[in-house]
Each structure stands twice: as structure tokens, then as C-alpha cells.
Amino acid sequence: MKVFVTGGNGFIGSVVVRQLVSAGHRVVCLLRETSRTERIDGLPVERALGDVRDRASLESPMADCACTVHLAAPASWDDGESSTLREIIEDGTRHLLEVAGARPGRRVVVVSSTAAISASERPEVFDEQTEFAVDDETLGYAHAKHRAEQITLDAFRRGVQAVIVNPAEVYGPGDTALGTAGNLIDFATSTPVLVCRGGTSVVHVDDVAAGIIAALDRGKAGERYILGGDNLTIRELAELVLELVGRRAMIVTVPNALARAAARAVVRLHIPVPFNAHVVPYATRYWFVDNAKARRELGVTFRSARETLASTLDWLKASGRLSSKSTESS
After folding, report:
1. How many CA atoms lie within 13 A of 234 on its CB side?
2. Taken in order 158, 163, 168, 173, is the CA torsion positive or negative?
């Protein structure tokens, strides 16, 4: 097939593109003039200049593609302003589905997030049928992804063959922006290691890419599929990282109320701190999920958290982003 991909130069997107090319598909990647392309340089892909915020720029490159994978999203946590989230995640999804709607029968896989499933203050496992119940507006990314899913389901009701996939917290080699790998560096090098009460589902980028491609073929239009692996508390995540790097360090649990208040102050006052304050509202909640539907209907499997984190840490060390000296026991 000829597949149109938005966000194909990103961490997850580049792995999707590589797997599509390896499977013999032709790929058209939507790129902006300022897009960094080192992850896909050397791959035999067609490059189309455009932006999901510009509906007209999608028309021509999508015209002769059999299907679409929509991955475009803000590049980092620093792009978390509400206007940016709305323009890229919500408006971008709407534009793409409008163009797809003019081409009946074309399959579209919209890559959402488990942040659009739901979260809880205490450990609770969610699935695709869970009603979104995140009421904290500071979780802008979660709300934007939820609204993009509503846009997708509206398009499905108008006849667009759209499938939604919900990756959990994605780790793996190639996370050069340190979107999640930065968490592992913090755990591996901080003294003491600070954690809060929350949790997440950990998944390998290769497994997410395989799930996205499986959804192109086997996903049911109008359905969601959770692409997540093991559920770990933040403390368990820190403990596993310390074990894998062979380091002993004190782990201190910071009360959630204090962590959230500090994060709000840091963001509001633009105070420089040695942690990403935008992550705190998410880390202080539980985002546990059940991947049974994806395993059953898409035929995908998910490696363990240990294997996922080990491969990420190996890459961090090999790329010079994490040195053995910085992980010495304290």
C-alpha cells in the first residue's frame, strides 16, 4: 500500500515508518519546513511539505494514498500551551479527517493516548470502554486527546473508516528528545530519587508501532485499542531503573499535594528546576490500562517493563546520554 503518515519523523512515527518500509509499503511523510528528519534520513520515503494545521496542504499528498496514519502531535512537554494543543491535536485531526472523508473507504488510524482513556487518584485499571473522567484542566494534553477522539468518532459516524489506538507511556531507543527517557535518567542519577504516588503503563516503541500497523489491517472502524504493557507505580518504575543500572539510592515519596503545588508555581513563575514540572500533574495520578482487546483483535504482543526499560537504558548509555559514572551508588 501507499501510506500517508503525519508525524512520521517523530519518536514513534519514525519507527512506524521504518516498519512500514520494511514490510514493503510505500510511505509519504508529511513534514514542515522546520521538521527535523534525522530519524528517517536514508529511508526510501516520499516527503510532502505541509502542516496538519493547514488543511489545504493535506489534499495533494493524501490523494493517491490507500490509508493514513495520523501521529502528528506537539514535539515536547514545552509545547503544552492550550492554543498549541488545540491547533495541532484537535484542529489537525479535524482537518485530516475532513480530507479523508472526501475519499470514501480510505482507512485512517488516529494515534491517541491512554491519557484520553482516564486517570484515577488510586490504582484502578481502565479499558477501552472507560468513560473519560479527568476533570483537572491543567492536564491539557489529556483533554486535547480526548476531544480529538470525539472528533474522530464524529467522522466515523459520517462514514470515515477511522480507528483509534491509545499508546501508553512509550519507551525505547531513539527518544532523542528525552520525552520519556528523561525520566529514566532522573531515576538513574538523582540523589535522593524523588517519586510521587501515581502510576503508568510502560510500553516499548516497537510494540506500539506494530500495534499501529496492525490497526491499519485488522482494526475495526469506530473502535479504540489500548497499546500498553505492564502497569507500574512511579516507585516501582524508579526501583526497576535503579536495579537495571546497578545503583543503590534512597527513594523519597513526595506528597502529591505538595508536588502539584510546586509544579504549578514553577510553571506559573517560570522557575528553573532540575525536573519537568509539566509532567508532575500526570505522574501524581494512575493511568493503568488493560491491553487485552489489542492482543485479542490486533494480534499484537507487548514485552515486559523490564525488557522495555533495559533496551532504553542500553541506548541511553550507548548514545552517551547516560554514563556509568553518573549512576554510581550513593
Report:
1. 26
2. negative
Pick the CATH number of 2-171+202-229+289-303 from 3.40.50.720, 3.40.250.10, 3.40.50.150, 3.30.160.140: 3.40.50.720
Q: Are 288 and 233 in contact (CB under 8 A)?
A: no
Reported residue count of the chain is 330
Domain boundaries, the chain: 2-171+202-229+289-303
pLDDT (average), residues 140-168: 97
Side-chain-facing half-sphere of 91: CA atoms under 13 Å: 14
- The three-point CA angle 154-155-158 to 5° equals 95
Give the residue carrying C-alpha cell 502497569. Answer: 231
Residue 297's pLDDT is what?
A: 98
Evaluate if pTM is beyond 0.90: yes
Q: Which pLDDT value is given to residue 54?
A: 97
The residue type at 87? E
Question: 73-106, pLDDT tens digit by residue?
Answer: 987 666 556 788 999 999 999 999 999 999 888 9
Confidence of residue 267 (pLDDT cuts 50, 70, 90): confident
Distances (CA, A) of 314 to 67, 184, 289: 35, 11, 26
What is the C-alpha separation between 321 and 330, in angstroms, rounded?
20
8 A C-beta contact, residue 168 and residue 228: yes
